[in-house]
Target: Calcium-binding protein
Amino acid sequence: MVSTPVKHQKFDMLFDWFDQGGDGLLTHDDFQAMGDLFAALDTSDDQANAAAMRGAFEKWWRVLLAHGDTDGDGRVTRPEFLTVMQANVTSREHFGDAVLAIADALMRALDTNADGMLSRDEYVRMYNELGVPPKHSKDAFRRLDRDGSGAISHEEFRTAITEFYLSDDMDAPGNWLIGPINVGS
Model:
């Protein structure tokens, strides 16, 4: 399966975000750190929700390792990651358990007033704590609030996540989840 320039750039950005150790390789430690980072966003003491986020990152790591670690060294290089993201993580078989499970748990964790919506403040706080600058998350919020209600519904959030991972459309609002993409880079 060939990655489009749009998906390639998004997955390249994702690799950099996931490389918590900054060593140019993805490891189990990187995915545990991402799981902990996401789980820490849940300030409600909902241990099941925090465990769901950690579990989804663990599932994602197992898919990467099983299908992407071509040399069997227990680490995933950037080229391996780009290939496995396109061929396996974004497949129907794995996408729900490895990606949408995180989105659903995030929504539960961040919807601090339990109204089924993410306010602009909730959304910007989430991404700021995940290392995405507020200037990017504020712009993303504007794009992802498709109905102009001033909030992102659970469905709008899932749509954005799905677009980020699956869409080849350069103009898809979901592409802005972790910052602007630049296909020319």
User: Anything to note?
Assistant: The chain has eight helices and two strands. The helical segments are 5-18, 28-39, 47-68, 78-89, 92-110, 120-129, 134-144, 154-166. The chain has a mean pLDDT of 87.
